[in-house]
Protein 1
Amino acid sequence: MTTSTSIDRPDRPERSTGDAAGRSADHATGSAPAAPDAERPISLTATGGIDRASHHRLDEAWLAAAWSHPTTRVFVVSGGQALIEDKEDGTTELVMMPSFDAPFTEAHRYFLGTDEDGVRYFALQKDTLPGRMDDIARPAGLREAGVLLSDRDSELMTHAIGLENWQRTHRFCSRCGERTAIAAAGHVRRCSACGAEHYPRTDPAVIMLVTDEQDRALLGRQVHWPEGRFSTLAGFVEPGESLEAAVRREVAEEAGVAVGPVAYVGSQPWPFPSSLMLGFMARATRPDIQVDGDEIEEARWFSRDDLRAAIESGEVLPPSGISIAARLVERWYGRPLPQPRHHG
Ligand SMILES: [Zn+2]
């Protein structure tokens, strides 16, 4: 019951903006939501066109040549942040530099891959982000940058931040306790004492939108969330457990609802610090709610009309932004969620 309390769920309050243009259009019509299209894919597995080219990671000569190539681009990650910059055309980019401008230390260099034009990308893990003379660039974490950056930049940053989280917390060998060293261009840590190789960790977590016989959606709120925030339930997969079993267990633990059929719909890397969110639609077989009161303080069944009215009145703040929770709710709702009419 407490295993999922530490999941940093993808629906933080700072993500409460979203696609204002699309939503206000929806808002203006006031029409009933279209029937949900169960086949509509969730675009979370879309990539930004980066080939990770992992076969180069152990090739020091290739890496050295790639690093010094004039078209190579480098960005710095530090403490889960990178520098981003708003452009005049309204887009936002990762601040990248050629490698000859980069503060190189081999011990903190990650090779991230190449794009279709043959450009090679590296990230450097540093204790601080580099200073800039102008005020245009600013440090940002993935929660902010993820909705602003292009697919390519977002993919690069997610990869680098995931590696950084792992590198910073796995400096010692979990087998013998000796210090480990970075290898494979950031994708391995090696222990010189016992020879163990350690690979980046990814922790699977399930996140699910549960519906009942009337096609209402089950949304809950965590104890520590801001007033009105409701979202999908989520939790970590336990050892020896299938994803389907984890969905059923978490929904039963958090909301007391029994779940039958479970269908996978998409995934989302969530490197805060190392989760992979696996999204499901699930059907309740017994809809009676009994929240655990510990992690989840309230859970409710919402029809689409209920949810629209609650959001528009400001009573409910739905998940939004880059989160898979928002995509799951929208998938059920059948279109982008309405915007709140009032704040607070
Ligand atoms: Zn060791």
Protein 2
Amino acid sequence: MQLSEKLNILAESAKYDVSCSSSGSRRKNTPGGIGNAAAAGICHSWSDDGRCISLLKILMTNDCLYDCAYCVNRRSNDIPRASFTPRELADLTIAFYLRNYIEGLFLSAAIRHSPDKTMEDMVEMLRLLREEHRFNGYIHVKAIPGADPLLIAQAGRLADRMSVNIELPSERSLHLLAPQKKRENILLPMGQICQGILQRREEKRRYRQASDFVPAGQSTQLMIGASPETDRQILRLSQGLYRKFQMKRVYYSAYMAVNTSSLLPVPGGPPPMLREHRLYQADWLLRFYHFDAEELLQDEAPQLDLLLDPKCMWALRNPEIFPIEINRADYQALLRIPGIGPTSARRIISSRRYGPLTFDSLKRTGAVLKRARYFITCQGKYAGGRDFDPRRIHGLLTAEETFAQQGYQGIQLSLEDLLHQETPATTEKKSPSVILSRFNDLPSVTSAILSPLPVTDSPPPASGPALKSPLMLPVKGGLLSHEGFSL
Ligand code: SF4
């Protein structure tokens, strides 16, 4: 088989893995133009210092022993199969690098012959790149579950980042949909990589010359929507992974139906992209805003609200905390206010040294006032309308989000559409009446979006009940609900 043919097959097979960041662009080359962002094979990731780097994203082989129900490369699928030898792939990577097509490599593999043989080939390929070609670019490599720990350790010394994909958020789903995979075969290499990173960090503190081990950390991927786990289960699992294995990132991948199985959602529906987006937002709250998964979602309300971001959702379920006086709140309290992030919270605290903040000066800290105004007072003044009523604020914020979501999907929706038309507001299949029914008083909601709310003199008392149950849309899944992974 020609090398170019292998490249096409194995780059195409790698595209469902999102555990390296990808641009997701659909732009194709045009006659007379150069470049093609839609072609499989090149993805983009971000280095620690914020640079965007292009990676060759490829499988070493798609010839798989296993038969995971959700995977395009599963043994029972009749698809073209190909495998690179370590030398072929090392030479190809260098050729791409020298032509400036890529700055690094994202390498994964299906399980060919055995986990050990697959990992051995991957390690050999990395060795050729690092030692023969003296390649110092970024390499992200998958650890193959079940491979010998010695091979994992060798890969860790050669790669910048490693990942072991969990894919399914509970042991039961793993058992049903990927029966040849074992929980311990996934968690053991994660633990080994974590130990290696911590140990090497300690060695580096003592001897600056100590060699690297997975210096860019480890990541994993969870599939969303292939199985019925709730957002609460998924977030609790992510939190456990961050805490126990020092994950750099947990990636969420909206399930795309490529196979049919009675255990999977029926093919044909759109992938749950909005749910994936909400999980990324909630994940951000865990990592940078000191939220706990248990605070965000409880047993009685286990799903994120698809129509509102998780921070607003949390604030509206805890109205007794709001509104918060911006001139007195400490850093942790500021972080809890929707529209205020770590940078604006730090700026607010340092600005207060020179005098109390007003709504105008608050804008200069980078706070998003159109959101924050419902949850704060500034020198005792409130700009969120008549009072702090969670239901009213939920309606206003949801209407704002609805407009924003049209941009997210590339759909233009006018105010007129929102008022009168049958237009879906998210990628989840639903009618607009689901959205519109939430606005009891739609004309006043839309006019409130369009005009600034008046500033009132005294902080209003919270009125109306907290939003204890989420206003949410159904989540698809092929199985009955069950408990998550135990770490
Ligand atoms: S092990 Fe499972 S998920 Fe991985 S390539 Fe094979 S069939 Fe696909």
